[in-house]
Amino acid sequence: MLTSEFDYNLPKNLIAQEPADPRDSSRLMIVDRKNKSVEHKHFYNIVDYLRPGDLLVWNNSKVFKARLRGTLQLDEEVSQLKRNNSTLMIVNSAPVEIFLLRPMENSGVWRVMAKPGRKLRLGMRIRYAEDFSAEVVLKENDGTILLQFNEDDLSVRAKANKYGEVPTPPYIKDSNSGQNLSDRYQTVYAKNEGSVAAPTAGFHFTPELIQKIEDKGVQFAEVTLHVGIGTFQPVKTEMVEDHIMHSEWVEITAKNCDLINQAKKEGRRVIAVGTTTVRTLEGVAKKYFVDETTSRLKPFSGDVNIFITPGFEFKIVDALITNFHLPKSTLLMLTSAFVQDKDFLFDCYRIAIESKYKFFSFGDAMLII
């Protein structure tokens, strides 16, 4: 497939800059895959489309302040030898911004994205605060960088939350980003800290709406997938199949596996809240079914690498709640795969644009049934 097949034009004024208030007042497009029909509702109407016995599964990952602004500081010995070099002195005080992606197996080593990364050299130190700095130890071929902190992973995350900012997507204007959205760029049920980007389909839920859904007889289960900054990035290869998907850390506990397995056994719908939940469920199912004949999930914690494109066979997810995604993105490709008719999905996007739906992270939602 050509990546260009997943492109579309979106007026900039339809890119949501802040979440709806209250959250569940956002709009909701009901997409019926079988009948090729569309309805226009608000998210609080989702209760009417859920059935007693449905299992709603969401990603409980919590965003931390992974965006750090610092300055480059050369190794003291190098700086002493070169202190009369004016060009070096400029580099030595240059600002640099990093996004913490994930900790590595070695204590205190983190994979990051840096801007501008080309200025970084091995041995350079980036200082974010008087008691918080890291040294460049490796530059990877994929553009990411490994930094060595002097603290363990929990301490790094704690200091990032103290000195950093929430890494909101690049299409959110600076005036609306950073500290201003630290509370709003989070689901109300987030609890397992580790994401640098929020699982945004869950933004629409409020405690009151969750209670109404529960009162209807809907069950809840949860998974964890720590979202990376790559979720913002479009596919850049000409052919979809040539895109390299990064691994993501996921977890499904025994308790939640039991809830999912029981629902599948009894023929009840498993409804995924967001593409991150889909990637977790289907990624684990693809590799770790205990028995293909019974299709039972088993508990799993670790990396999963799954790229879902049209033609994919879904084993767990029966319905999907998701936002409207960026052109040429892996998330749009996943949604196309789930709808099972790319042309119909793009018709839905065209209708959404004509109807002035809001798009992307803080935008409106779809319920695909």
DSSP helix fraction: 10-25%
CATH topology of the largest domain: QueA-like
What strand line-up does the widest sheet have?
Answer: 2-1-17-16-14-3-12-13-15
- Total strands: the figure is 17
Can you give the mean pLDDT?
90
Name the poorly predicted regions. 77-82, 86-90
| CATH superfamily (homologous) name of the largest domain | QueA-like
Shape: globular
Radius of gyration: 22 Å
Structural class: alpha/beta
Order of SSEs: EEEEEHHEEEEEHEHEEHEHEEHHE
User: What is the domain total for the residues?
Assistant: 2
Spell out the key features of this protein.
369 residues; QueA-like; Thrombin, subunit H; six-stranded antiparallel β-barrel; 8 helices; 17 strands; 26% strand; globular
